[in-house]
Design brief:
Length: about 375
C-alpha cells in the first residue's frame, strides 16, 4: 500500500499518502534532534498544510459529485492531493468548475485571514509583505512565531501553485485545457496542454536544480509523469477517432451472476483463462469484476463475499458512442470491460484489450 485510509466522507475514501507520513516523521525526528525549540511551530505548520490540502481536495470532490462524476477516493500528498474519479467530466465547463474551486478555496482562506487580522487584533506581523519581499530569512522566522501567518502562507502557496501553472495534472492545466477544449475540442486541447506541461515540468526542474530547491524538482518530476500519462490518453483518442464502436462489441460475453462468491469467480477465471467478467446486478445493471477486484478481497473472506459486492459498478455505453472517448476512459482508468446497450437494452460488451489492439495498429499504420 502506498497510502493509508483515514476515513470516509460523503462516500469518498480519504487516504494519506506514505510520503506525507514519512515527511512528518523525518521532519519531527530532525527537529527533535537539531532544533527542539522549533519543534512545535513546524509541526503546527505541517498540520496546517495537511488541513489545507484536505479541504482543497474535498471541495474538488464535492463539486465533481454535483457535476455527476463519481469520486472514489482522495489521496493526500504534501504538495497537494489527488481526487481519484472514475470519469472525466463531460462538459468543459464542468471540468473548469471542478478544477478552479480547489485553489479558489485556498485563496478565500488566505484572504479571510488578511481581512480578519485587519479588523480584529490577532497576532500577525503587520509588515509581512515587506518581510516576504525583502528578507526571506526573517519571513521564515515570522512563519514560526505567528501560526496564523503560517496558515495564510500555506494557503496562498497552494492556491497559486495549483492554479497558475498551466500544466496537467495540476488544476491550472485542467483550467487551461477546459478553456481551450470549449474552443477547439477536447482531444486537440489535451494534445496542446500536455506538450506545454512537459515544457513547464522541464523548466521547473531546472529552476529547482539550480536554486537547490529539492521540493520544486520533485514537483517537476510529478508534473512530467502526470503529463506523459495525459499525453498517452490524448494519443489513444486521436488514434481511435472515427472508429465505430460497434465493430469492437463482443456479442456473446460471459456474464457472471452477482450471487456467486468471489472464490467461485476466481475459479471461473482460471478455467476460462480470463482476467475479468461482467457481473449481472439487475436486469439492465452491470458490474465489472477483474483480477484486481479479487485481489482486493481478503483471502479468508472470498468464500462469503459475493461478486455483486466485490465488483465495480459500471455505466453501460451506447453502441453509437465515440470509441475514442470510451477507449480513453477505459485505458486511462483501468476499466477492462463495459456493457454495451442499444436503446437501453444490453447487446454485448466492449473490452479495453480490443481497443488497445486497434490503438497499437492505428498508431503505426495510420501515421502521417
Ligand atoms: Zn486541486
Amino acid at each position: 500500500m502506498h497510502s493509508f485510509k483515514l476515513g470516509r466522507l460523503f462516500g469518498i475514501n480519504v487516504e494519506l499518502h506514505n510520503t506525507f507520513v514519512w515527511l512528518a516523521i523525518i521532519v519531527a525526528v530532525l527537529l527533535a534532534l537539531l532544533q527542539p525549540e522549533n519543534f512545535l511551530p513546524i509541526i503546527i505548520l505541517l498540520f496546517f498544510l495537511f488541513l489545507s490540502v484536505f479541504f482543497h481536495e474535498l471541495i474538488h470532490s464535492v463539486v465533481a459529485i454535483q457535476k455527476g462524476c463519481k469520486v472514489e477516493k482522495i489521496i493526500l500528498l504534501p504538495i497537494g492531493g489527488i481526487s481519484v474519479s472514475e470519469e472525466l467530466p463531460e462538459k468543459p465547463s464542468s471540468e473548469f468548475l471542478i478544477a478552479v474551486v480547489g485553489p479558489l478555496f485556498n485563496f478565500v482562506v488566505a484572504f479571510t485571514i488578511l481581512l480578519l487580522v485587519s479588523v480584529v487584533k490577532l497576532p500577525f506581523p503587520a509588515n509581512w509583505f515587506e518581510l516576504f519581499l525583502t528578507s526571506p530569512v526573517e519571513f521564515e522566522e515570522a512563519l514560526l512565531i505567528y501560526p496564523l501567518l503560517g496558515l495564510f502562507y500555506v494557503n496562498l502557496l497552494l492556491g497559486a501553485f495549483n492554479l497558475f501553472l498551466p500544466a496537467l495534472p495540476l488544476d491550472g492545466g485542467r483550467v487551461a485545457r477546459s478553456i481551450l477544449a470549449s474552443i477547439i475540442g477536447f482531444s486537440k486541447a489535451t494534445a496542446i496542454i500536455t506538450k506545454l506541461s512537459v515544457f513547464v515540468a522541464i523548466f521547473l526542474f531546472l529552476v529547482g536544480f539550480f536554486s537547490g530547491s529539492i521540493l520544486v524538482a520533485i514537483i517537476a518530476i510529478f508534473i512530467y509523469f502526470g503529463a506523459k500519462q495525459e499525453q498517452e490518453t490524448a494519443a489513444i483518442k486521436q488514434a481511435l477517432e472515427k472508429e465505430p464502436l460497434k465493430q469492437f462489441v463482443n456479442r456473446k460475453p460471459f456474464i457472471a451472476k452477482a450471487s456467486l462468491s468471489v472464490e467461485k469467480i476466481a475459479e471461473l477465471m482460471q478455467k476460462r483463462n480470463e482476467l475479468y467478467f461482467l457481473v449481472q446486478l439487475e436486469k439492465n445493471r452491470f458490474g465489472a469484476i477483474d483480477i484486481n477486484s479479487i485481489a482486493a478481497v481478503d483471502r479468508k473472506k472470498r468464500g462469503e463475499t459475493t461478486a455483486g459486492q466485490a465488483c465495480r459498478k459500471v455505466r453501460p455505453v451506447g453502441e453509437n458512442e465515440e470509441s475514442d472517448e470510451i477507449a480513453a476512459k477505459m485505458l486511462g482508468k483501468g476499466i477492462a470491460i463495459l456493457p454495451v446497450t442499444r436503446r437501453g437494452k444490453f447487446i454485448g460488451a466492449i473490452e479495453a484489450r480490443e481497443l488497445r489492439k486497434r490503438f497499437e495498429l492505428n498508431k503505426v499504420l495510420k501515421e502521417g
